[in-house]
Specification:
By secondary structure, the chain is an alpha/beta fold. The protein folds into two domains: 227 residues, no CATH class; 302 residues, Alkaline Phosphatase, subunit A. Helices cover 45% and strands 13% of the residues. The protein is globular and about 80 Å long.
Length: 614
């Protein structure tokens, strides 16, 4: 039994070592980029990439484990030939990907993914793309390296195959191998954390090349193929593209009559803090439970700034809300652009803009930064400092997801006075995420889901208030703008109207913001934050094609959002939901008509077409 385990370990670690050598080859081949990295950073690239190498090696080792399991009964799998054939075939594919990947990176600046497969249907175009390359020398190099690696693999298998000859206690051996196969799932998914391994698991630096070098080429190729099944076709093409543009263009037309609410001068740049509040629904504003307001502190803050009480989230998940707030980029009906680093890395965003304008940038989140590829997106957005659950002691891990909002609020409040001005800091709260567990006794009695949700909001409300209260006592307050917004709404508290699940609070306040105690009823979108903010600070905004200015009196009142294969469209006089599967409007309210449905579909088509082109 132990000899079979030893054989598996030899096989597994041989592949891990091979993948590490492949990373060294990539770094040498891309020397024009590697030489710009410090030696410690190169070592970190190797160290962080090891996690993905182990995952890929574990996937490769699954088949030999199954063969060993069968070998207990069948003698053919106790011979080296079967393992040699499998290893040779696998090596052929993986080595080919590694060699092609290194050359493609010079051309494209990204690791190999499913993109080359698209060229297979157009051989002429494919050849045109690669004809300038020294194909003969690539093939020769590939054959030579494959030959020597195959000889080495065969030698390793031949010397260790004797470990599989033990046939005693077959039943015990079978159980042991089944257990080992199950255990391989852990390294294959990158560990026992909530989120399986993805690009964020190995991204660690503001250097995009260092992050790219940490990626395992074969893992990235397989991952991209799996994800490409969701991307290749626009399932939201309802009309001719020119017709869609004609319908949507008036929605973004304005006269730039912008009201300035943030105090800025040529010599003073305002600090900006964005608090993205998990699952914060407009439905809880003004709501009493047991004689107490759900978010009493937030309601007091409303009186200190400019509040939008008719704002809609772009989607229904945190990753969708992040790209909507920070990049002004719409959510997709299925998935999120953040899940596709090759696309999200191209997005503009307020993080990049602040960085380019010499702001110190930071992002605070008490959970796993790898979740839904959030870290990959944040690093591409030039956030210089990420403070996550990894920056806290185990004793602080008081949440299933990481650290609760009170812990992060204390850290955030402690860090703000130390930030070099001007600064841009974002805090994504955590505690009002399902399952709505909080570290304190709930303010409202009951154990049902809705009460837990309301208790979690009440708890986070106190944490957000703590940050604002402490910030007011700092010198930075007079020159700081704070934006508080929900990442998305929530179906709780249920009122039977799905549209309301997307309605979220949006508040602008701070010492640098007009204290107007103003509630704006105009329909706006979460997407509009990006353009509004950078225009208030007199930065360029041409990149935010889906965002409008909240403070432009000439913008039309409307909002667009998506859910699972569905579209929502809201104006000041109507609300509707369109189901893409059934190709019909499933909810109408107010003065809806066929034109509104056509606008919604045109927006969806334009947005998804843009996504495919990213």
């Amino acid at each position: 039994m132990f000899k079979k385990l030893l054989f598996v370990l030899i096989y597994l670690f041989s592949w891990i070592f091979f993948f590490e050598l492949a990373r060294v080859y990539f770094l040498i081949y891309e020397w024009q980029f590697s030489r710009q990295l410090s030696f410690p950073l190169i070592l970190q690239t190797m160290a962080h990439g090891l996690k993905m190498d182990i995952a890929m090696a574990s996937y490769v080792t699954f088949v030999p484990c199954l063969m060993i399991l069968v070998s207990i009964l069948s003698p053919i799998f106790r011979k080296g030939i079967s393992y040699t054939i499998y290893t040779g075939c696998t090596l052929f594919v993986i080595l080919f990907l590694i060699i092609v990947d290194a050359e493609l990176y010079k051309e494209w600046g990204s690791r190999i993914d499913f993109t080359p497969i698209k060229y297979l249907s157009s051989p002429a175009e494919m050849w045109a793309s690669i004809s300038h390359l020294p194909i003969f020398w690539f093939i020769a190099f590939f054959i030579i390296v494959l030959y020597f690696l195959f000889l080495l693999a065969r030698k390793i298998i031949k010397s260790s195959i004797v470990l599989l000859q033990n046939r005693e206690k077959k039943f015990v051996q079978a159980l042991a191998m089944l257990f080992l196969i199950i255990c391989l799932i852990v390294p294959a998914r990158g560990g026992i954390q909530l989120a399986p391994i993805n690009h964020s698991s190995v991204y660690f630096s503001n250097s995009q090349f260092a992050n790219n070098a940490a990626i395992n080429a074969s893992w990235n190729f397989i991952y991209s193929i799996m994800m490409s099944k969701r991307l290749d076709h626009n399932n939201y093409k309802y009309m001719d593209g020119n017709v869609a543009k004609k319908i949507t263009q008036p929605l973004f037309t304005n006269e730039n009559k912008i009201r300035q609410i943030i105090k800025v001068t040529d010599s003073i740049k305002a600090n900006v803090i964005i608090i993205i509040w998990e699952s914060f629904s407009e439905k809880v504003i003004g709501k009493y439970v047991d004689g107490k307001l759900v978010v009493p502190n937030f309601e007091k803050l409303i009186a200190e700034g400019v509040y939008f009480n008719n704002c809609y989230a772009s989607g229904d998940r945190t990753d969708k809300g992040l790209s909507a707030v920070l990049s002004g980029y719409p959510a997709m009906p299925k998935g999120s652009i953040i899940n596709h680093p090759e696309k999200s890395g191209k997005l503009s965003g307020i993080g990049k803009i602040f960085f380019e304008n010499k702001y110190e940038t930071s992002f605070y989140y008490g959970g796993e930064p790898e979740f839904a590829n959030i870290k990959t997106y944040l690093l591409s957005q030039k956030f210089q400092q990420l403070v996550t659950k990894n920056d806290f002691h185990k004793s602080d891990m008081n949440s299933k997801w990481g650290v609760h909002d009170d812990v992060m609020a204390k850290r955030f409040s402690r860090d703000i006075p130390k930030m070099k001005e001007p600064f841009f800091a974002t805090w994504l709260t955590l505690s009002s995420h399902e399952p709505f567990e909080i570290p304190t006794k709930g303010a409202f009695a009951g154990d049902e889901a809705e009460t837990k949700y309301l208790n979690s909001l009440h708890y986070t409300d106190s944490c957000v208030n703590e940050v604002i209260a402490k910030l007011k006592k700092t010198p930075q307050w007079k020159n700081t703008a704070v934006i508080i917004v929900g990442d998305h709404g929530h179906h709780l508290t249920a009122n039977g109207i799905k549209v309301d699940a997307f309605r979220i609070p949006l508040l602008w306040l701070g010492g640098a913001v007009e204290n107007t105690n103003e509630s704006i009823t105009k329909v706006v979108s979460q997407l509009d934050i990006a353009k509004s903010l950078v225009q208030q600070l007199n930065f360029k905004t041409s990149a935010f094609s889906f965002s409008r200015n909240l403070f432009d009196s000439t913008t039309r009142p409307w909002s667009f959002f998506t859910f699972n294969d569905g579209i929502g469209f809201v104006t000041d006089s109507s609300r509707l939901l369109f189901d893409n599967v059934g190709k019909k409007t499933i909810f109408k309210e107010g003065k809806t008509n066929n034109q509104n449905a056509e606008i919604a579909k045109a927006l969806m088509q334009i947005q998804y077409t843009n996504f495919l082109k990213q």
